Amino acid sequence: MPTLEKPKKRDMLKIDDIHVYRGRTYVLQGVSLEVGRREIVALIGANGAGKTTLLRTISGLLRPKKGKILFQPDSQSQEIDISGASPEQIVQLGISHCPEGRGIFSRLSVLENLMIGAYLRKNRNEILDDYNSICRVFPILKEREDQAAGSLSGGEQEMLAIGRALMSRPELLILDEPSLGLGPIVVESLFQVLSEINSRGVTILLVEQNAIMALDLAHRAYVLETGRVVLYGTSGELAGNEDVQKAYLGGIV
Ligand SMILES: Nc1ncnc2c1ncn2[C@@H]1O[C@H](COP(=O)(O)OP(=O)(O)OP(=O)(O)O)[C@@H](O)[C@H]1O
Ligand SMILES: [Mg+2]
Question: Which of 109, 168, 185, 204 sits between 20 and 30 A of 92, alpha carbons compared?
């Protein structure tokens, strides 16, 4: 008998059982996860769990040995398997990666760094529109646009890295430890900006060691341990989970 299931909300990203090696190290040992449209999903896990490896695989910098990465931008009626696509193709489809350590070009100006984020785009007016709206979100970048990026503070450099990632006009923004090395007040304001970016329609996949902040911001979260997803659920469910509290929330909450 046919079942009358409600059509499920279309996921934006579906990772299906990916296995990834780095050199001879078997890092991702069958990881599956989903990110819904307009969702903020956090990925938490200890050092070396494979979080960066997962993000680098999504953005085409690493290839899975096995498994699929299905991405469906708003403009497409079908999912596209991007597991064999190049990083440039993936950016053009609508995924932008704000890397661990930020990857800022310190001798280039703030403006030049931002424009690197738009290098695959051609429409000058749209690029300028996006530049102006990023400067509204991060006014400090406008103030410092001619300054060498290396002279910015850590928090400002993180804003620059996020701004640069937004210059490709992504539908999905993936961020690798944006809070690393930043003080609590700066982190607080960065996370507010991420929430604002999301409310403007950008889906976010966020890797964070700061699990308290990440669970506060995200709708759902996954816990990765030694290359496997060991737990997932809504942020509230994970924040209330005893194992998560012990391992990632310092036993409090
Ligand atoms: N270039 C590489 N060659 C070989 N092994 C690597 C390489 N990069 C990372 N690894 C190994 O892959 C595993 C996962 O690393 P990954 O950087 O993805 O972890 P992570 O969860 O992002 O950790 P962290 O929280 O420290 O950023 C680790 O055991 C690491 O030593
Ligand atoms: Mg990492």
Answer: 109
